[in-house]
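Re: [help] complex structure
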Amino acid sequence: MTDNAPDTTPDQPAPRVDRTIPADPTLARLAGEFGQVVFVSETDGDVAHVPAADVPAFAAALLAVGYDVFVDLCGVDYLRRKPRYEVVINLLSYTRRRRMRIRVGVDGADPQMPSISSVFPGANYYERETYDLFGIAFTGHPDLTRILLPDDWEGHPLRKDYSVGSVPVQFKGAHKAS
Amino acid sequence: MSDTPNVVTGDLEAPTIDAPSQSDQSSSESTDTRRRLHDVWVSGTEEPEWVRQSTDEGAQELLPETEEPGLDAQRGVLVTDDYVVDDSINDEERQVINMGPQHPSTHGVLRLQLELEGETIRRVKPIIGYLHTGMEKTAETLTWLQGPTNVTRMDYLSPFHNELGYSLAVERLLGVDVPPRAEAIRVLMTELNRVSSHLLFLATQGMDIGAVSMMIYGWRERELVLRFFEDVTGLRMNHNYIRPGGVAADLPDGWEDTVEQLLVDVPAGVAEYEELLNDNPIFQDRTLGVGVITPDECKAFGVTGPNARASGIDWDLRKVFPYSGIEHYDFEVPLGKHGDVFDRYYIRVREIEQSLGIVRQVMETMPAGDYRTEDRKVTPPPRKRIDESMEALIHHFKIFTEGFKVPAGEVYQAVESPRGELGMYIVSEGGAKPWRVHVRGPSFAHVQALPAMMTDSLVADTIATLASTDPVLGDVDR
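Output below.
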């Protein structure tokens, strides 16, 4: 099942996203405040590419302008990209009727980023889940422990280099014994 | 282990361990971490080391209160803790009890660690993961067409919504449009699914509160709906019916008659439930003002769907971000005011009525035409063509073995499931299989918000509150 041959494919840079000033005046003001943030508009919302260090401040700024509903937080492992991981945060504004997706690149060597659970308490479990399945550490999280897997589990299964079927389970290979 | 004479190794009939051969054996095994079959320890005596180890909660332990960064940080700044320490209650009356994971009222395998002070819940920690089967990882090994088979098993009480969310996301990446009949069939099935899910909610909610007859009534009407699902899809649950590009098959002959009968039978059943519960003083005592969650807490914790609407949040994805042509049908969004258990119950009763209204409209305006897209990229060629054309045969074979490729990109698509916002975040790298499928299950957020609802309430209200949020653990753990 597992392919043990060393993979020598070089790391690809993440696709370039051109910086545009959003049409929405509030978001345009935010774009001015956060010089590093790149906005992209979609049909039912906006996407913001945010550097990891700016995430709590940017989330707090979004909360202040009405993006007050915490929807989702998840990780993606791009494996061959640099930065390797991406944490995707979904926020929603009931008053503006817009979604906001925050994409955060997280380095592969020592994956960590600041926690937003002090801004959005709902992020607490989602950050634990992302830590559990991807091994991305959220600094400042009040209780960063495994949530879905047992506490003594080794590895982080949703990483792309964690292959399916690599964990020995009870009765594995039992059909071959006879 | 020889210095703890209360430990009995071996059989119960010989409670002494004076025999040197036995004590030698136990001391040689003391470093062995394997589970021992016949270790017995006499109750009331000091616990041996291995007993303490086996009851250790590890990382899931409630944090020590002195080191805990405060309830505000744990539960969020928006949650106000109105708990007043009663000096007359000493530490001995504070105890931590476990509810679950095996418990009939947890709707699956959810475990709650409750810290009680007398009969008041001081703190709650939901512990999940007992049903985790790595379905998001599995999704990465299935082709785009096999995907619905997987996601339909996540929230097993609303399988059509899972399939719909997945299919809509894939279609958005593909840029494929779905014919009107397929959209209408999707609306028909998902709204009936909302009815069946809410009926199950009424059944379990009633039973958890003590109205055991509700259990029987709720399942009775739900079975009628599931029988229609079986007619259409072949299965009562886990249908794999809604797929990228349309639906798997057209509706069977005479489906209107079955739906017509449903539109008579289900409202009659619901009227019966309302007569049984609404004015029932016991039901009211157990539900009114219990397990309250405020709109601010709903937003902060990501509580959506009927649970948020019971707190008065006017938000329904079918109205705001309509999908699958749902905007063509008239329906209202019922809203609660108090955010308590009763409102969460009553909202769902009203939603059943609205969904049945949509079903009637769909039935009356069902367009003719194809039930899946004509786009040959995702739809196999018709059966007849396969007999005539080698290319069609190869095409058919390729779609079902290699699968079709989806352009690279990422998309977040949400649908309004019976429990709330069911989001699918799908990343494609241009291959025949998804790169990443993340499912934002509404129940996950609801379980997370349980402490906000339960803290400072009575221990007897735990079950009522838990049942009222309608969690599906398959959706929580995935």
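Strands of chain B lie at 7-9, 39-41, 94-99, 111-117, 120-127, 242-243, 246-247, 409-417, 420-428, 436-440.
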